[in-house]
């Protein structure tokens, strides 16, 4: 729940409260387990395996990252492999947990196969996110949370609805050839050709092969099924205890200095925007939405009110 | 030495024997230390800090990765932060060392600032590589070893020499605007806009901030100076012991299956090449060059023979 709301507050609407009805459906149809029994096994002083028992990925993920943080207290670095999980929302959520404890948090997950394979005509790997969060001295942490494609299917949908053509370089049709027609999109193009494709594979190795989960196109998709099917997703979490390498106060001071210097770099006048640090747009959203709330559309308010009624909850919005 | 030759055998000519004269100059002019005294301090059961004392990065790096492997034996995962190092060549070399021991190896290093900052007009971060190596059952390991830009300055040089224009999307001039004239290239464009830029920053956080090294544009450049200046580079190595998560034999079998499936994915007939896995081109080079040797130009043979003469070595090529 925290993770879903945090995503919306940070402006990551695709991974925020918009998905409440989706998760509720998951509980009702059987994909998600309302009463999961986690099974955690510490395998060495710095590692463990975590069976999420089909809990919502957010709940299981934050528990697994907490274990990583706990082990990294004494071991400097720790990693937890998660199996039998489901969609965990925005990867940043887990990294922030580590940053609170003066650690660097890395989080990875499998996702629905969408990324065009290098030289291929169809997707094999998912748009698997890579996320690192590191604390700074005077503001929220540095946060890089990125998928491995130029764009997302969400954005393609927006173009489809508006009847506009896509920019070049975003997507391909079912023959693997580039298309600017959003109705013909079959797979998404990875960043940097083989590089983005390779990053997706790297994440699937960590998330699927280390956890014994299905991989690539065998990964159960987030949508496109009846929500009964469990997803058996794998995640991978790493916590790096900064104190094992350098004094955390010094690290955070230098992290802040790096951020400040970047923002004061000369900007490209043609484009007019200042140089920004990964995570800056989300910091702006967070500041605004904590004050003014999360904007929701009228139809979505109705969806939420219906959900509240269904579950006999007092709150209305 | 091993690392340099391995790079050439794998077809990574930019990081191979071509650089022998560069490193020799480093020894002679003072950048590199012929008799380094490493200082290693184990800081927790899974981490350590390694002062390279200005040794060649290859020598210090492989020593540091060996420490990570040693600690990961019992801790499942381990990380070593390196300071006071220099150019370490191809990042893959260190990952292969981990894969030999049924571990996943990750290696990162700082590099000369070349990557255009997001919305900026000049580079701040280096083209910092991200590398992961993981063992497979029946062939050499999976190896992703990538920099964060679309192209490299080496390739720009080749276009400059041939008088050809660059493809779109590779590079910018000193106002931060895209250029196809190789003579005007000032910075390189990152893969996926803010994503490649963010990956460069992520690597600099691991390599510079955790090791207390200089970062971004303060990093001493590889070329452009008199070779007297020491580089004080930082690296970061992680070893993940597969056995802490899943049986290594099972992991390697599934890694092989993933590779085999990818290679048999339907190819794009328009382009004609089969789907390949990151590291495949290097595997082909390795097979060929182990049989037939490393091709060298006539002028480079003269350079090498001169070096052999200078150092009174028997071998000639």
Write a structural description.
Two copies of one chain form a homodimer. By secondary structure, the first copy, chain A, is of the alpha+beta class. Among the domains of chain A are: 29-147 and 193-251, Malate/L-lactate/L-sulpholactate dehydrogenase, NADPH binding domain (Ribosomal Protein S8, Chain: A, domain 1, 2-Layer Sandwich); 150-189, Wheat Germ Agglutinin (Isolectin 2), domain 1, CATH 3.30.60.50. Chain A is built from nine helices and twelve strands. In chain A, strands 1-2-3-12-4-7-8 form a seven-stranded mixed beta sheet, with helices on both faces. In chain A, strands 10-9-11 form a three-stranded antiparallel beta sheet, with no helix packed on it. A two-stranded antiparallel ribbon of chain A has the order 5-6. In chain A, strand 7 and strand 8 (142-146) form a beta hairpin. In chain A, helix 3 (57-75) packs parallel to helix 4. The longest helix of chain A has 19 residues, at 57-75. The first copy, chain A, is globular, with a radius of gyration of 20 Å. At the A-B interface, strand 3, strand 7, strand 8, helix 6 and strand 12 of A face strand 3, strand 7, strand 8, helix 6 and strand 12 of B.
């Amino acid at each position: 729940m925290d993770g879903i709301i945090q995503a919306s507050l940070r402006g990551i609407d695709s991974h925020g409260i918009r998905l409440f009805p989706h998760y509720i459906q998951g509980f009702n149809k059987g994909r998600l387990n309302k009463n999961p029994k986690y099974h955690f096994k510490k395998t060495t002083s710095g590692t463990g395996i975590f069976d999420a028992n089909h809990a919502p990925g957010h709940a299981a993920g934050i528990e697994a990252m907490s274990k990583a943080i706990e082990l990294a207290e004494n071991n400097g670095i720790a990693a937890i492999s998660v199996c039998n999980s489901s969609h965990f929302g925005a990867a940043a959520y887990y990294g922030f947990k580590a940053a609170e404890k003066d650690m660097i948090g890395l989080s990875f997950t499998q996702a629905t196969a969408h990324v065009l394979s290098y030289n291929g005509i169809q997707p094999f790997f998912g748009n698997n996110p890579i996320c690192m969060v590191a604390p700074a001295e005077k503001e929220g942490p540095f946060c890089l949370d990125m998928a491995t494609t130029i764009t997302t299917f969400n954005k393609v949908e927006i173009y489809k609805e508006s009847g506009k053509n896509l920019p070049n370089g975003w997507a391909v049709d079912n023959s693997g050839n580039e298309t600017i027609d959003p109705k013909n999109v079959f797979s998404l193009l990875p960043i940097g050709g083989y590089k983005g494709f390779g990053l997706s594979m790297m994440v699937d190795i960590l998330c699927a092969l280390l956890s014994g989960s299905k991989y690539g196109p065998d990964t159960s998709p987030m949508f496109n099924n009846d929500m009964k099917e469990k997803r058996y997703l794998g995640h991978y979490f790493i916590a790096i205890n900064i104190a094992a390498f350098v004094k955390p106060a010094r690290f955070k001071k230098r992290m802040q200095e790096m951020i400040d210097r970047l923002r004061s770099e000369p900007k490209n006048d043609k484009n007019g925007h200042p140089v920004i640090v990964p995570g800056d747009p989300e910091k702006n959203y967070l500041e605004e939405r904590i004050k003014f709330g999360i904007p929701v559309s009228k139809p979505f308010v109705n969806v939420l009110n219906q959900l509240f009624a269904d579950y006999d909850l007092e709150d209305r919005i």
